[in-house]
Amino acid sequence: MIHVMDTYSRLPIALERGHGCRLWDDSENEYLDMVAGIAVCNLGHTHPAVVEALCEQARELFHCSNIYRIPKQERLARMIAENSFESRVFFCNSGAEANEGAIKLVRKYCNTISRRGPKIITLSGSFHGRTLATLTATGQDKVKKGFDPLPEGFLTVPFGDFVALKSVIDDSIGGIMMEPIQGEGGVRVPPPGYLQKVRELCDSQGIVLAFDEVQTGMARTGELFGYMHEDVVPDIMTLAKALGNGFPVGAVVAKPEIAEAFSPGSHATTFGGNPLAMAASLATLSVMVEEDLANKSRDTGRYLADKMDAMRPLHPAIKEIRGRGLMIGIEFDGDISSLPTDGLKKGILLNVIQTNILRLVPPLVISRDECDEAVAIIHELLKEKGL
Ligand SMILES: Cc1ncc(COP(=O)(O)O)c(C=O)c1O
């Protein structure tokens, strides 16, 4: 442990095996997983289609470099476009890297095509990653502290406030980046009509609209991509987390007229889009589409949120239950940051953000019985804490 850098507050268990919504630690203790590796293993752990695709690809070829054609990249890019909007895709390895790529693409587009900007607006409470550009884009001071000097060219406006956003628009603004639903910021859904108004503003001014769908994408919110709830199509969409169901992969998905700002040499990565990542992602997206997991996420999400809601009279500390599909945030009056540790003793994995918000993001394959089990354990935990 001492040789690993001290950058995470870790819970004291070591997980060794997983299947569906269940995980087992190195002492064979079983846990019901309400975290899914933080909205990553959407098909459940060790899904057979992904395991099979990875094993088959591992026997053929791990890696070859982007200086050669990679047919599975071409297939996955087409499949993403067919299931979202007409686009070109750049593959990378993580959410921060996808957003970093999106930021570079916005700047290149501004500097070479739209000739406006290239400043980018983001929202307070947002989270876009931990690289220097993405932490600067992030609307939370705590992730920026100690990392000066930060890159220039970003400004943050209050979440969900269209008037405030509009008031800072001038020719120096080239792009707006936001999550359709904020994840790390506390599962915050923007007010109805907000995304539509932002889209109209971008259209009227020639500003690039980028949606960070790293957490909301891949059926998590009850649609395959979060933008679909309000039918507000972005110019750029970034993906990562659940794209490979746990295999590291990210993607910058851009409309062709934006993507054309990049040409050979503009952007690159050694590992991005390698055959193993593409095999895992193709299998993941295929299962998602074939089994209409978005619909399942919507149904089960409603069921789980309703069950939590029914508990409210017993737990007055619950302030609000919000979210979409199986991205649910339960805000409490007071600190609940010990809940994940307490949950371990009762065989459940839980995640708390911002000290007072319980975030439920289980694998989308979670059954209603498993939801009932989770709700019963959470009820016990809250009762013990007098909440
Ligand atoms: C919306 C959003 N964007 C970007 C990121 C960063 O992704 P990664 O940790 O893969 O770099 C996250 C991670 O939580 C996220 O939720």
Q: What do you see in this structure?
A:
The chain is of the alpha/beta class and 387 residues long. The protein folds into 2 domains: 48-290, Aspartate Aminotransferase, domain 2; 292-331 and 365-387, no CATH class. It is 35% helix and 18% strand. It has helices at residues 36-39, 48-60, 71-82, 95-114, 132-137, 162-167, 194-205, 256-259, 275-290, 293-310, 339-345, 368-384, and strands at 15-19, 22-25, 30-33, 88-92, 119-123, 154-157, 173-178, 208-212, 236-239, 250-254, 318-324, 327-332, 348-349, 351-353, 357-360. The strands form 3 sheets. It has a 7-stranded mixed sheet, sandwiched between helices. The model has no long low-confidence stretch (mean pLDDT 97). Residues 94-96, 99, 127-129, 179, 183-184, 212, 214-215, 240 line the site of pyridoxal-5'-phosphate. Pyridoxal-5'-phosphate is lined by residues 94-96, 99, 127-129, 179, 183-184, 212, 214-215, 240.
Percent range for β-strand residues: 15-25%
Distance between the termini: 35 Å
Shape estimate: globular
The value of Rg in angstroms is 21 Å
